[in-house]
Amino acid sequence: MATDRIQSHASVSKHWDCRICAGTPVSRRLGFSPGCGATCQCACASSIPASVPQFTNSPTMIVLVGLPARGKTYISKKLTRYLNWIGVPTKVFNVGQYRREAVRSYSNFEFFRPDNEEAMKIRNATISQHLFCTQVFDATNTTRERREVILSFAKEYGYKVFFVESICDDPEIIAENIKQVKLSSPDYVNCDKDEAVADFLKRIECYKVTYVPLDDDCDRNLSYIKIFNVGSRYLVNRVQDHIQSRIVYYLMNIHVTPRTIYLCRHGESDLNLLGRIGGDSGLSSRGNKFAAALGKYIRSQCIPDLKIWTSHMKRTIQTAEAVGVPYEQWKALNEIDAGVCEEMTYEEIQEHYPEEFALRDQDKYRYRYPKGESYEDLVHRLEPVIMELERQENVLVVCHQAVMRCLLAYFLDKSADELPYLKCPLHTVLKLTPVAYGCKVESVFLNVEAVNTHRDRPVVVFITVFAAVLVMM
C-alpha cells in the first residue's frame, strides 16, 4: 500500500482512492489551497520538477493544453472512455462547464480578455475548486503560471502529471471544429451563427495573447505529448510509467476521419438452437440465411475500402464468407472461454455448478469460469482490436455475443456493471458512426428470425455454504 510508504507527508489524516492507478490509496494532507503560492519562478524552465517524490503507483493527472477549438474536449472524452474501459476508473473535468455554472450568463469574448481581472478571478477560482478531484483536466492551461499551479498541487499530493498539448494551425480544421462543436455550446444559445463564429474567433485571440506552448528545452523535465494538426505529427517527452505509455499509444492511434464501424454476431448456430454456450459449431439453416442477407445488406451500403474481421471460429467465418469480400481472422475475437462450462446449457450449469452459477450473477463482469475467462479478461484480450479499430476507417466485425458487448461498451462508454447485460441479438447489425463527443448507433434487423440468447440481470442472488438460490426477474 502506498500509504504505508509515505513518510514525508506529516499529519496524514485522510485517505482517498487513486483513480488512475487501479485503486492504490494515496495519502493527502488537509489545509492546502491549490491556488496559492504557485507562481513561475523563471521565465523559462519549470520551477517544479516533474519528478516530484512519487511511488510507482502514484496517480496520474492528465492535463490538456491548447487554444480553444483545438480538440481538447474531444481528446479528453475519448481518453477518459478508453481508460475506464480498460479498468482504470477515470473522470474528466471540463473547466468551461464549471465556469458556466459559476457565471450563469455569457455575454461575449470580453470575459476571456487577459486584462479582465474580475473574470480572471472567477476562472482561477473554478480551477482551484476542482483540482482536488481532477484526473483528466480539460482546460486551456495556456500560461506557464497556470501550469505551475497544477504542478504545485501535484507535488503536494503525490500526483504524476502528464500534459497533452493539442496544437493546430490549419484554418480549415479550426473552422470545422468551431462549426461542428462550438456553435452548439450553451454560450451561444439563440445566437446568430455568424455572430457566434466571430465572437469565438475573438475569444481565441484573447487566449493567444498569453499562450505559452510547452517548450522542448524549458519544459524538458515535464512529461507530455504534443499533438500537431489532429495527429499529423507527435512529440513525446519523458514518459514515466505504463499508464502514460498506454495514453501515448492510444493518442497516436486515434483519428478524426469520418468512418463507419459495423458490428454483428455470427448467424444462428446449431448450438444456439440447443441453448448451449460456447463450442465451435457451424451455422443453422437460419444462420445461413442471415449470412446471405448480411452480404446483400453490406453490398447495398456501397462502403469504400471495407475491411471484414472475424474470429477463428466456424460460425463467424461461415457468416463472413457469404459477404463475398476478403476477410481477416483474429484469434482475439474468439468468444469468451467458458472453461468447464463449454457447450453446457444454463440449466445444466445451475444443476452441476450451483455456486458458480450464483457467483457469476453476483458479479458477471469479474466472474471467471473455472478454467475459463471473465468479461474483464475479455476486455484486456480485445484491447489490440480496439486500437486497430481506432486506426482503421470502415470495418465490419463479425463476432460473438460477449465480444460484441465488450466492443459496444467501449464505443458507447458503458460501465463494467452494464457491459455484460448489453443486448446484442442475433441477425442484427449495429452501425456505429463516431460523432463529435460520442457515437451514433443504428440497429438494423435483417428479417431472419433467430433464438434469443440474451439472459437478463437477476434481481437478487443468495449464496449459502450448501446451496445457491437464485431469484430471477
From TrEMBL:
Keyword annotations of the record: ATP-binding, Hydrolase, Kinase, Multifunctional enzyme, Nucleotide-binding, Phosphoprotein, Transferase
UniProt cross-references to SMART domains, sorted A to Z: PGAM
6-phosphofructo-2-kinase domain span: 51-258
Any one of the GO CC terms: 6-phosphofructo-2-kinase/fructose-2,6-biphosphatase complex
PROSITE patterns on file: PG_MUTASE
Binding residue positions for substrate: 265-272, 315
SUPFAM superfamilies associated with the record: P-loop containing nucleoside triphosphate hydrolases, Phosphoglycerate mutase-like
Keyword ATP-binding: yes
Catalytic residues identified in the record: 266 (tele-phosphohistidine intermediate), 335 (proton donor/acceptor)
GO molecular function, one term: fructose-2,6-bisphosphate 2-phosphatase activity
CDD domains listed in its UniProt record: HP_PGM_like
One of the protein's GO biological processes: fructose 2,6-bisphosphate metabolic process
Pfam families: 6PF2K, His_Phos_1
Family, per entry: In the C-terminal section; belongs to the phosphoglycerate mutase family.
Quaternary structure (record): Homodimer.
Described purpose of this protein according to its UniProt entry: Synthesis and degradation of fructose 2,6-bisphosphate.
Protein's recorded name: 6-phosphofructo-2-kinase domain-containing protein
Organism: Electrophorus electricus
Designated gene of the protein: LOC113586892
